[in-house]
Each structure stands twice: as structure tokens, then as C-alpha cells.
Write a structure and sequence with these properties.
Number of strands: 7
Structural class: alpha/beta
Number of helices: 9
CATH topology: Rossmann fold
Number of domains: 1
Strand order of the largest sheet: 3-2-1-4-5-6-7
Distance between the termini: 29 Å
CATH superfamily: NAD(P)-binding Rossmann-like Domain
Order of helices and strands: EHEHEHEHEHHEHHHE
Helix content: 40-55%
Radius of gyration: 17 Å
CATH architecture: 3-Layer(aba) Sandwich
Length: 248
């Protein structure tokens, strides 16, 4: 699956699934524009991609801040990048009983996991519509498909991302734009490693394949949706969870 001549935005590209996605899309031939709050790691990812002779740039991005999203879009324009692919990977959450959540927690979870992809997609969609082509791939979660104990707000936000994907797919299909969603199960990322070890062990035991996903395995699903191999696939959600949600 090749992406030669394409430009891809990857949010959350400084670590975890976002980093793996940036590397995978660059390896497939895309010019990758990475957005993340972590400027140090973001620059390191770009340097590593460029060292392989591939194309990448980094611009600081806070998907929960509309002004930051606008500045990110302006930076892409200044680099004269016509974005063909938007990979909404940035996400945030933590395990906490719903009744312990604060309104500030609710807002952060929603801003990052739902409104972030909405804002970034909204920024780059006009160019895709103008060119009558494009791919939008949003990383949701199996928590958004079937729920997850201790992640009620996160599940709600990720479920919203799935519904957003399906509705937008209907709206922009007439412009030749594909909009799809990847739902990881528990994945070996810095975010998951911050979870207590007993929870990590529980995730592994609950997964039929008895291990966590590798970030690169999620990135491979994103690559499929971003490629021409998925040219007649839109509004779809794929679970990459080692069988965790077989009944979901």
C-alpha cells in the first residue's frame, strides 16, 4: 500500500500510536505533518523519519485549543502542503470511576477525544472537498464500541467519534472523500503504561490473543484506510483488539 505523492496530517504523532502512524505513513511514501504538544519528541520523530530519506515536518498542536488548530492549519499552508490524509490519533484519558470525575475532567476528555478530531477535520476538509478527494481516519477505541469499566467519559467521547465518522462519511462521499475509524483495544503505549500494573494485567487476560497490541499494528489499519486499497470503504469502524470485543 503506497502513498507516494500524498501529504498526511498525523495528530498525536510524538509518541505511541501517533508516532507509529507517522512512521508507517512516511514509509509508505507520504509527506507527514506531525502535530503534538510534545515538541521535543515530535522533533525527534521527524528527525528519525528524515534520516531514512523520507519527508516529515513538525508543528506544535493542541487539538483541544481551537486557536492552536487554526495556527497548525496556517503552518501547513505556509509549507505549501495540500493535505490528502488526516489521521486523528491524539487522545487522552485515565481510569477513574465516573462519580469521581470533575467537570474539568469531563471537558478535557471531550475536548481531546471528540472535539479535537472534529476541529482538525473541519480545518482540512475544505481543501479535500475542493480537490474531490481525501481520506479522514480517526482513532476511536473499543471503549467507544462496547464501554469500559472506569472509563465512562472516555467511552462516551470515543463513541461520539465513531458516530461523527459515520455521519461525516455520508455527508462527504459525494466529494470522493473516505471517512473511517480505527478502534484499538489495549495497546502498549506510554498512556497505557501509566495505568496501574494490575489493570494492564487484566487487559492482557481479557484479550483472547493474550497480549497488548503493538502501536504499529494500529498504524497498519490506519494505513489501509488511508490508501487506495480502501477506495470504496467509508463510514466503517474496524476493531484492532486481539479479539477483545468479539461479541461487541
Amino acid at each position: 500500500m503506497r502513498l507516494d505523492g500524498k501529504t498526511a496530517v498525523v495528530t498525536g504523532g510524538a509518541s505511541g500510536i501517533g508516532k507509529a502512524t507517522a512512521e508507517t505513513l512516511a514509509e509508505a511514501g507520504a509527506h507527514v505533518l506531525i502535530g503534538d504538544l510534545d515538541e521535543t519528541n515530535g522533533a525527534a520523530v521527524v528527525a528519525a523519519i528524515r534520516a531514512k530519506g523520507q519527508a516529515a515536518d513538525f508543528v506544535r498542536l493542541d487539538v483541544a485549543d481551537l486557536a492552536s488548530v487554526a495556527a497548525f492549519k496556517s503552518a501547513a499552508d505556509a509549507l505549501k502542503l495540500k493535505v490528502d490524509i488526516v489521521a486523528n490519533v491524539a487522545g487522552w484519558g485515565k481510569i477513574q470511576p465516573f462519580m469521581e470525575n470533575t467537570p474539568e475532567f469531563w471537558r478535557k476528555v471531550m475536548d481531546v477525544n471528540l472535539l479535537g478530531p472534529v476541529a482538525v477535520t473541519h480545518a482540512f476538509l475544505p481543501g479535500m472537498i475542493e480537490r474531490n478527494s481525501g481520506k479522514v481516519v480517526t482513532v476511536s477505541s473499543d471503549a467507544g464500541r462496547v464501554g469500559s469499566l472506569g472509563e465512562t467519559m472516555y467511552s462516551g467521547a470515543k463513541g461520539g467519534a465513531i458516530a461523527f465518522t459515520k455521519s461525516l462519511a455520508r455527508e462527504v462521499a459525494r466529494y470522493g472523500i473516505n471517512v473511517n475509524c480505527v478502534c484499538p483495544g489495549p495497546t502498549d503505549t506510554p498512556l497505557l503504561r501509566a495505568v496501574p500494573e494490575k489493570h494492564q494485567e487484566a487487559f492482557v487476560k481479557a484479550t483472547p490473543m493474550r497480549r497488548l497490541a503493538k502501536p504499529s499494528e494500529i498504524a497498519d489499519a490506519i494505513l489501509f484506510f488511508a490508501s487506495d486499497r480502501a477506495s470504496f470503504v467509508t463510514g466503517q469502524t474496524i476493531s484492532v483488539s486481539g479479539g477483545l470485543t468479539l461479541a461487541g
